[in-house]
Structure formats: C-alpha cells, structure tokens
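Shipment paperwork, digital attachment
Item: protein structure file
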Amino acid sequence: MKIPLARYWSLLAVYIRGQKGLFWLLALVLIASIGFKILIPQITRLFVDGAKAGETLESLFLLGVLFLGTAIAGQLLTIGATWLGEIVAWNATNKLRTDLAEHCLDLDMAFHKGKTPGEMIERLDEDVTLLARFFSQLVVMIGGNLLLVIGIVIMFFLEDLRLGITFLLFTAASLYLLNQLREIAIPHEVERRRVIAELFGFLEERLAGTEDIRANGAVAYVLNGLFRIQSDLLVAWRTVQLRYWALGVVTRSVSTVGYVIAFVFGFWLYNKNAIGLGTAFLIVHYMNVLSRPMRELAMQVEQLQGVGASIDRIAELVDERSELVYGDVALVETGGVKLAFSHVDFGYEAEPTLRDISLELGQGEVLGLLGRTGSGKTTLARLVTRLYDVTSGEITLDGHDLRTLSKDSLGSTVAMVTQDVQLYQASVRDNVTFFNRSIPDDVIQDVLSQVELRDWYNRLPKGLDTMLETGGRSMSAGEAQLLAFARVFLKDPRLVILDEASSRLDPLTERRIERAIDRLLVGRSAVIIAHRLATVQRADKILILSEGRVREYGHRTTLLDDPDSEFARLMATGLTGVLA
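Attachment content:
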C-alpha cells in the first residue's frame, strides 16, 4: 500500500492556510536554529587550529565563549520552533477534528449502523492526535533535519569538492533508502489501528451492558472475546515493531558507513597536507551532526508510517458520502403539517421492512401507530424524519416530497422524541437547548414549567448550570421524557413524532406526561407510537402495522364503531401485545 507524500502536504496546506503568519515565523526560527547548528563545528575548527598554532589563552577563551553562546542560542531557537510547531499543530488538528465530527453527523444512518462508538472515537480522536504529531514534531523536525542535511552537504563542498561529491552521493543514497523503507510498516500499522478500534468498540459495548452480562452469567464469554481481540492486537503490534526494528538497524548501519567515510577521507586529506587538523576534526564533527538528523529522520519515518495509517483512515472517513441528498424547497406555512405516505416500501437490508404503506394525516391531526414489536413502527417514524430514504414510493409534507426539502426546512418542521432519551454529560441548559447558547434562560425556565419540570429544576443545586450525567443516572425515565418534550417545545416544530416510553411509570409521572403531551400537540400534527391507552384515545386516526404491512387504517371513531375492525377487537381486549 502506498500513501504518497503529496497527501501529507495537501492535508497540511488545508489546515495551516489560516495560520500563514505563524507558519512563516516558524520557518524563520527553524532556519535560524539550523544555521547555528552548522556554525558550531566551524567554531570548533578555529579552536583546534588556534590551539595547535599556539594562540593566546584570551583568544581561545573568546572562542569557547562564542561556542557556548552559539550552542545556547541554537537550543533556544529549537525550543521556540517546537513551541510554534505545537501551536500550529493543535490549531490545525482541532479544526480537522471539528470538520470530521461535523462530516460524521451529516452521514446517514447506514454509515453509523456499521460503526461502533469505540471505532468512531478512535478515528476522531486517536487518529487526529497522531496527526498533531505530524503537524508539530514531524513537519518541524523532518523539515528542519532535511535543511540541516542540505546545509552540511553544502559546507562539505565549500571545504573540498571531492568531499562534497562523496557526501552528496552518500546522503542521496541514504535518503533514497529511507524513503524506500517508508512504507514497509504502513499496512501493518493500519491493521493495528483497526484492531485497537475494535477493542475500543468491544469495551464500550460490554461496559455499557455490565448489568446484563453479570445477570446472565456471560462474564466468561466476554473475557474470551476480550482475549481474542488482545491476541490479534499482540500479533499486529509485534509485526509493526519488527519492521520498525529493521528500519532502525538499517539507519545505524548507514551512520556507521558515514563515519568510516569521514575518518578515511579526513585521514587521507590530512596526510596529503590538503587540510589542517582542525579541518579534519571539522569533517568528523559534521558527520556527527549529519548522523543525528539521519537517525532522527529514521525515527520520524517510523512515526510517519503511523501517521500514514491515520491519514489513510481519515481519508477513508472523509470519502464517505451520505446517500441522502437534500433539495432546496422550504416549507413556510405555520401550524400543523399535512403528512402523506404513497405506496412506500423500505428495507434495511435485502429483506423488506415496510411494504406498500399508504396513509394521509391532515393538519393538526394525530396518528396513533400500533403494532407488535418488529412490525415496523419505529422504521416508519425514521422515514418521516428522513434518517433513511424510502426504497420506493413517496413521503410528502404539505405535498412536497421529503427528498426535495432543504435540510434546514425538514429539521425545523419535524421533531422526534424517542423512547430512550439521550442525556449528555453537560449542563441542564445545554441538554435542553442542544448547546444553542442563543436561547435566553428565562425561555428555558418557562419551557421547563410547561412540561412540569419546575419542581425538579428548583431542586437543582446550580440551576441551569447543574451538570447532568449520561446513562440516565441524573433523572428518572419519566423526567427524561419530559426533558425531551422541553427540547421539542424550544424547537417549535409543525410535526411531532413521539415514541412513548414503554417502561412502567408511577401514576403521578404518567399524569404529568399526559398533560405535557396535551400541551405539546396543540396546533401540531403528530405521529405517536402508542404504549398507553390514553394515547390511543387521543388519536384522530389509527394505523395498525403487522409484519411491515398495513393491517388496518382509518379514523379512530369509525374503527371503534365497527365491531368487525381489528382496532375494536383490540380495544375490547385492552390492546394486549400491540402496546408493547
């Protein structure tokens, strides 16, 4: 697998474009630090030649002070270059991380269904963090070391043409060899990162289900699965490290050859009286300076292979495209919206989930959606919010096909409340507003009062700044659903899709939820996946699904008055099975 350097530089250019001033300052400091490193051996040569020629102690002392000052200045400039490189790196990679997160949020559910949370964390955080190393350490150090190598070769030419040609050929051959070795570990590094992502996903899922795992005696099974993944990781890690070790051996061998050339050439020229002792020492010193960037370049090539794997995985993520294409139609009417399904078919895989679904819902009407588990109720709701597109047929809002609506228009028109309300580890304010800081606190408090969460709010130690925890540990199931209603009130949609919580609630909480639903439905159309008898009685129309097909559809009162209707029979038996 080849990951060309062009991809490195193109990625770099995109994310430092807004930091040109800082980047050029970094380049200036880097060049200055390299100049000092090249100057130090020249001072050493003057000192050696001066000592041999019997220069005064004062002159040698001044050369020593100059050497010390140059070395300190060079180190300070190197520190400055590293510091500037870190700033450029984190500015660039934070922007990249934001862009990737936004891109992932725009992808459809078909993508997210195939990715575990652990894998997404690995891509958005770990891979991008490796790129931070690329932007800071690798770019600064690789660029700096390459410039240092070029500078030293030029100094060899200035000392002796034969010396310059020899070390030019040696350096070119060494860099060519390192470049050829650059790709040897990337496929194995990609595999290692894949296994790490699998490990993260495995741990996230199993830790989230700790109670179920213990209750069902599946601890041994989980540990066996963990052992298998760790075994795969060990194999992948060992393979990568062996290739890194081979690269290190080659690098040390190259340095050894360079020292041999320096000693032989220096001795030969010195014996011919072509150079002095200081110059002979200078040749060896320059080889010592040259060997350091060569070794560092090898180490950085190792890191570059890890970064190459990350860039490959990030590029793969960036290349993902949503199958959902939005139009530019904007719905402008207020009040309830007209919803219609026309011969809709849909399936997640080859097996169809919904077949030939047709229905009409007028402005301000409520559709009660009934059916056993697996009948397609939640799938139908997902199609209305356009988490997926229909396989065939058409869904319209106010006569407009969903696929022709703009993303903003659809998002502002339709809102969905799921059974499992997601709470974020953030403040109450952010959980209610979805991090929209433009909504005033008094509006948020008023909405909490409308959904009967005012007493709960008054008990919070820091009000809207109180932090909530993920996983429902901060609120009961009923309170969480009321909080979800508050989110919908703030959004003020024209169509509400409500998947009622199927868990048993205490009578007081049920009454609070019923009153909140009454307020929520005023002036809005609604599709409610019903789990309570009171909700069914609230509906204007009833749709009963069975195995993805319409079992029965019509006005609630009409169906109820027909003793032969499925709905009438279900009401007579308490809706057993279809409210689950």
